[in-house]
Amino acid sequence: MLPFCEPYKIKMIEPLYRSTPTERLNWIQQARYNVFNLKSDQVFIDFLTDSGTGAMSDRQWSAIMSGDESYAGSRSFHELRDTVRELTGFEYLLPTHQGRAAENVLFSVLVKEGQLVPGNAHFDTTKGHIEFRKAIAVDCTIDEAYDTNNPHPFKGNVNISKLEALLEKEADKVSFILITATCNTAGGQPVSMENIRQVRNLANRFGKLLIIDAARFAENAFFIKTRENNYHDQSIREIVLEMFSLFDGATMSAKKDGIVNIGGFIALKSKEIYQAASTFNIMFEGFLTYGGQAGRDMAALAQGLREATEFDYLESRISQIAFLGEKLKEYGVPIQEPFGGHAIFIDALRFFPNIPREEFPGQSLVIELYKAGGIRCAEIGSLMADRDPVTRENRYPALELVRLAIPRRAYTNNHMEYTAAVCGQVFKNARNRNHGYRLTAEAPIMRHFTMELEPIEF
Ligand code: F0G
């Protein structure tokens, strides 16, 4: 078989500045050791997120030029709605300016104080929107997800017996069930069709809605095609349609598998929920046919959704992640396996076994990778996990990960080789260090975006 190869070529480039180690040392100090405070010009390779950072195609840019900016009834809205209908089967569409806005609008309808929202691990803004309404996000991800060495092919799966037990005990408190596919918090890990179907059966038995956080639905479909029995011969679009048929609705951050720089939506089967959500959409986002997006944004998104559900694109995307994963393994860097769909996750507890958790080993690694190679990435660990809303104690999640999130179609495999070499160098030179950082400032919720740190000297 021939090796994979990108089904596109590069038409436009964006220069990057290769800084010196001394410059980076100064910049990270000035940023108070929070990489969100760095200017992008201070970053060489930006793996902070795969969200809104992808490269649009020439067809998407053409769509930008022909977008319809009418306040009401925009042609671009109808194009987007038709594309979402075709891909998901959902009748009703509410555009929003991004994914968390979709959460805000839909949860304004669905989530009440004291309720529970079980599912696989919720993304942080999702959890934030649930907790903001004084409800509880219950993580029912399978245990295998929390062993970074376990080769389970669908580590985003929901633990069915755990969910069933919760429903048997507290069904009246459950607002709805949420599956995030792929499961970002568990490492960009996919959810199998079989698992979604089992959750659907439970939802039916207990009369609950089942919603998908669809930010990376196409990458999830690729894993179903390549890893799950009976799906090898199905097209990505067939799999996508079957996946969505098992849900009642979706929230979408289009900045991921929509391959656009901004955008999101809610898609629903139910007219009643659509109508209830419409009021909140008009209040928070904009009129029903734009919801915080320009017409041109919706036009580019419709095209992006079509491109993201092509097999050749997904194969090159997922193979690039795997390429980085294999290189990191060659350097001995402890990473989560199987590799995720949008990112490689380094296991910071195995990378820095001597840094106590209260000194944030994950963030310590983020800082080291920046200092060594100008690579910016994100901690998905105890900083992001925030404090318990009731006790205000630090929460320590099962995994302390550092995420190298790869923007879509933006970097080449040379960038991956460079990144792996930088990680390998830090692993070789610094893995025995035994101190990290302490917080000097933090916000009451979602603290990782704005917190400030200082190094604990040793
Ligand atoms: N759901 C998932 C699974 C996400 O990964 C994100 C964002 C959101 C919802 C919120 O969407 O950013 O458009 O408001 N994830 C980004 C990330 C920020 O870096 O993983 P948004």
Topology:
Blueprint (H helix, E strand, L loop, with lengths): L20 H10 L14 E2 L11 H9 L8 H14 L3 E5 L2 H12 L5 E4 L4 H9 L3 E4 L20 H11 L6 E4 L12 H14 L3 E4 L3 H11 L8 H10 L3 E5 L10 E5 L2 H14 L10 H14 L2 H20 L12 E5 H4 L9 H13 L1 E2 L1 E3 L1 H4 L15 E5 L7 H18 L6 E5 L10 E4 L3
Parallel strand pairs: 1-10, 3-4, 5-6, 6-7
Antiparallel strand pairs: 2-8, 7-8, 9-12, 11-12, 13-14
Helix pairs in contact: 1-14, 2-11, 3-11, 4-5, 4-10, 6-7, 8-9, 12-16, 14-16
Bound molecules: ligand F0G.
Bound molecules: ligand F0G
CATH architecture of the largest domain: 3-Layer(aba) Sandwich
**General shape:** globular
Strand order, main sheet: write it out.
2-8-7-6-5
Beta content comes to 5-15%
Q: Report the strand count.
A: 14
Largest sheet: 5 strands, mixed
CATH class of the largest domain: Alpha Beta
- Summed up, the helix count is 16
- Uncertain regions spanning at least 5 consecutive residues: none
Helix content: 40-55%
Question: Mean pLDDT across all residues, rounded?
Answer: 96
Q: Could you state the CATH homologous superfamily of the largest domain?
A: Type I PLP-dependent aspartate aminotransferase-like (Major domain)
State the domain count: 2
Q: Give me the Rg, rounded.
A: 21 Å
What can you tell me about this protein's structure?
It is a single chain. Helix 5 links the parallel strand 3 and strand 4. The protein is of the alpha/beta class and 458 residues long. Helices cover 41% and strands 12% of the residues. The mean pLDDT is 96. The chain has 16 helices and 14 strands. Strands 2-8-7-6-5 form a 5-stranded mixed sheet, sandwiched between helices. A 3-stranded antiparallel sheet has the order 9-12-11. The structure holds ligand F0G. Ligand F0G binds next to helix 4 and helix 5.
